Amino acid sequence: IRDAALAVIEQASDLDELEAIRVDYFGRKGQITTAMKGMSQLSNEEKPLIGKLSNEVRNAITLSLEEKQAQFEADLLNIRLKEETLDVTLQGRKLPKGSSHILTQVREEIEELFLGMGYMVVDGSEVEQDDYNFKRMNLPEDHPARDMQDTFYIGHNLLMRTHTSPVQARVMDVHDFNEGPLKMISPGKVYRRDSDDATHSHQFQQIEGLVVDHHISLADLKGTLNLFAKELFGEDREIRLRPSYFPFTEPSVEVDVSCFNCGGGGCRICKQSGWIEILGAGVVHPDVLEMSGIDSEQYSGFAFGMGIERVAMLKYGINDIRNFYQNDQRFLSQFKARG
Ligand code: PHE
């Protein structure tokens, strides 16, 4: 039995055949099982002898079966390892890379610039009280200058802010001058009842700036904005101040920057005068300081407000404000440099 068994095991060609052989010998009616059952009929002298022999036969066959099975399993594993190797040198798939919106890039560039000069960046609220948007900015009810900014009212004394200037009053209300001068910028969305066209949008973004301390003057404003213009538009830019009017500043100015090359590809921003307006600014009106409980005899300040879209349009030679809001990838993907 043993030699016959070892021979068929040797010739088995896979795990299934091996299993069939195991059943043939060790199954309920298998050869070994039957032989073992026959043992009970042997005499007492024969039992130990035959028992020892049959144990040896059984062990030999079992061992051989196990060895063969281990060998088959190892073979199978090798085949799988061969078939399932990864080619780690294979080129990966390219994922499209996103970037922040051009307006976000410009806003962050301006924020970084002022952060570097020790300003804090403050958040305001897009839904604002009439009090803060107008009255605290020296625009009482029926003030004619309210017409400069057509307003979305959303309730009694509640509106979509028309500029970021109300943040001035909010910050002055709580500032503690024992902790140092007040220097802040505040970026955010503003809303006006304008019909959208190439240069108007019912929603756009501004950055407000405010500095209040002892002896702050128009000269400080000019120095600050001069630096700003050079950083943002190029080293050889100059600025000039033109007299203007805002109810919350006195004197008020409009700030122009000298002609410059934008974007690239021969793009040049220039008007006949050689100057382009970039923002409104001025010395904070004493009444505005006083309404926040700041002594205008002791303190003075300057403020400015710029449109982020306008700055971006000048910087990159973009001629239609609607480009910013149409989410056309052909437009947006041109500005992946920084983001
Ligand atoms: N708030 C003004 C505007 O929206 C801009 C401005 C801000 C002017 C601060 C002067 C000082 O037009």
From TrEMBL:
<dbReference type="InterPro" id="IPR002319">
    <property type="entry name" value="Phenylalanyl-tRNA_Synthase"/>
</dbReference>
<dbReference type="GO" id="GO:0000287">
    <property type="term" value="F:magnesium ion binding"/>
</dbReference>
<dbReference type="GO" id="GO:0000049">
    <property type="term" value="F:tRNA binding"/>
</dbReference>
<dbReference type="GO" id="GO:0016740">
    <property type="term" value="F:transferase activity"/>
</dbReference>
<dbReference type="GO" id="GO:0140096">
    <property type="term" value="F:catalytic activity, acting on a protein"/>
</dbReference>
<comment type="subunit">
    <text>Tetramer of two alpha and two beta subunits.</text>
</comment>
<keyword id="KW-0067">ATP-binding</keyword>
<keyword id="KW-0460">Magnesium</keyword>
<keyword id="KW-0479">Metal-binding</keyword>
<dbReference type="Pfam" id="PF02912">
    <property type="entry name" value="Phe_tRNA-synt_N"/>
</dbReference>
<dbReference type="InterPro" id="IPR004529">
    <property type="entry name" value="Phe-tRNA-synth_IIc_asu"/>
</dbReference>
<keyword id="KW-0436">Ligase</keyword>
<dbReference type="InterPro" id="IPR004188">
    <property type="entry name" value="Phe-tRNA_ligase_II_N"/>
</dbReference>
<dbReference type="GO" id="GO:0006432">
    <property type="term" value="P:phenylalanyl-tRNA aminoacylation"/>
</dbReference>
<dbReference type="GO" id="GO:0005737">
    <property type="term" value="C:cytoplasm"/>
</dbReference>
<feature type="domain" description="Aminoacyl-transfer RNA synthetases class-II family profile">
    <location>
        <begin position="100"/>
        <end position="314"/>
    </location>
</feature>
<dbReference type="InterPro" id="IPR010978">
    <property type="entry name" value="tRNA-bd_arm"/>
</dbReference>
<keyword id="KW-0963">Cytoplasm</keyword>
<feature type="binding site">
    <location>
        <position position="250"/>
    </location>
    <ligand>
        <name>Mg(2+)</name>
    </ligand>
</feature>
<dbReference type="GO" id="GO:0005524">
    <property type="term" value="F:ATP binding"/>
</dbReference>
<dbReference type="InterPro" id="IPR045864">
    <property type="entry name" value="aa-tRNA-synth_II/BPL/LPL"/>
</dbReference>
<dbReference type="InterPro" id="IPR022911">
    <property type="entry name" value="Phe_tRNA_ligase_alpha1_bac"/>
</dbReference>
<dbReference type="GO" id="GO:0004826">
    <property type="term" value="F:phenylalanine-tRNA ligase activity"/>
</dbReference>
<keyword id="KW-0030">Aminoacyl-tRNA synthetase</keyword>
<dbReference type="Pfam" id="PF01409">
    <property type="entry name" value="tRNA-synt_2d"/>
</dbReference>
<protein>
    <recommendedName>
        <fullName>Phenylalanine--tRNA ligase alpha subunit</fullName>
        <ecNumber>6.1.1.20</ecNumber>
    </recommendedName>
</protein>
<keyword id="KW-0648">Protein biosynthesis</keyword>
<comment type="similarity">
    <text>Belongs to the class-II aminoacyl-tRNA synthetase family. Phe-tRNA synthetase alpha subunit type 1 subfamily.</text>
</comment>
<keyword id="KW-0547">Nucleotide-binding</keyword>
<dbReference type="InterPro" id="IPR006195">
    <property type="entry name" value="aa-tRNA-synth_II"/>
</dbReference>
